[in-house]
Structure formats: structure tokens, C-alpha cells
Design a protein that fits this description.
The chain has helices spanning about 15-20, 40-50, and strands spanning about 10, 30-35, 55-60, 70-75, 95-100, 105-115, 115-125. Helix content is about 20%, strand content about 30%. The strands form two sheets. The protein has a five-stranded mixed sheet. A two-stranded antiparallel sheet has the order 6-7. The mean pLDDT is about 80. By secondary structure, the chain is α+β, with helices and mostly antiparallel strands.
Length: about 120
């Protein structure tokens, strides 16, 4: 789906450490961490519920009201992996991939040119 819609993503955290250091998964890491810029994340959030195969579920607070994390997940239906924080919630508890939105921000640069302060804004997004 990401390739078909030109959505950019990267792996990070334990997933990246596992790929580099272990040439696979870290034995004690229980998930896959995917990061996307906001525009790609929002596009995935719109597309995934319609385009994922029937054995997968796109989980967000929009698709699962009892889901309280600020990041989304893609769950594999027919499996169970209960996380402690959400174990008593009425949600899909399938094995998952975490999808994080990279929220890039404005950096303010303050330069001194002679006796004048100049402020530059750099927006990353």
C-alpha cells in the first residue's frame, strides 16, 4: 500500500537496532516500529481502513474508540497479543505494527548581524 500510494516511511527504535545490530529482530522486542511524516501518516490513516486485506485491521482512536494510544497500529485479525495498558479495553488485540507520526516542528534561528537580531523560521513537515 505504501509503495502504491508513494507513502514514505522508515523503521526506528528497537526495529532499527534489530535490523542493524542483529540482522533481524531484537529477541526481546515484541513489535515493529514504523515512523511516517505527518502528510504520509494522515494519508495512510485515510487509505488503510479501506485497502488493508480482510485479515488486517487499522487501529486508531477513529476506528476503535476504546483505543487510547496517540499512535496507530496495524493489527493481524485472528491473533491475540494483549498489552498491559489496554488489556481490559474492548479493542482488537491482534499482533501489531506500531505506526508513529513524526511531528516535525518549526525551528527558530536567531542570528545577530551587526547590531540587528534577525529571526529565521525553518518549517520541517
Amino acid at each position: 500500500m505504501c509503495k502504491a500510494h508513494n507513502l514514505k516511511y522508515t523503521v526506528a527504535a528497537g526495529t532499527m537496532i534489530g535490523a542493524v545490530r542483529h540482522k533481524g529482530f531484537i529477541p526481546w522486542d515484541d513489535d515493529i516500529d514504523v515512523y511516517m511524516l505527518r502528510k504520509d501518516f494522515n494519508k495512510l490513516r485515510r487509505l488503510a481502513p479501506k485497502e488493508l486485506p480482510n485479515n488486517m485491521f487499522y487501529q486508531s482512536h477513529h476506528t476503535n474508540p476504546d483505543y487510547y494510544y496517540l499512535f496507530d497500529k496495524i493489527r493481524l485479525n485472528g491473533t491475540i497479543f494483549k498489552e498491559t495498558f489496554l488489556s481490559n479495553h474492548n479493542i482488537n488485540h491482534g499482533v501489531f505494527i506500531d505506526i508513529f507520526q513524526l511531528m516535525l516542528f518549526r525551528i527558530i534561528l536567531l542570528k545577530v548581524i551587526g547590531n540587528i537580531f534577525v529571526i529565521d523560521f525553518i518549517d520541517w513537515d
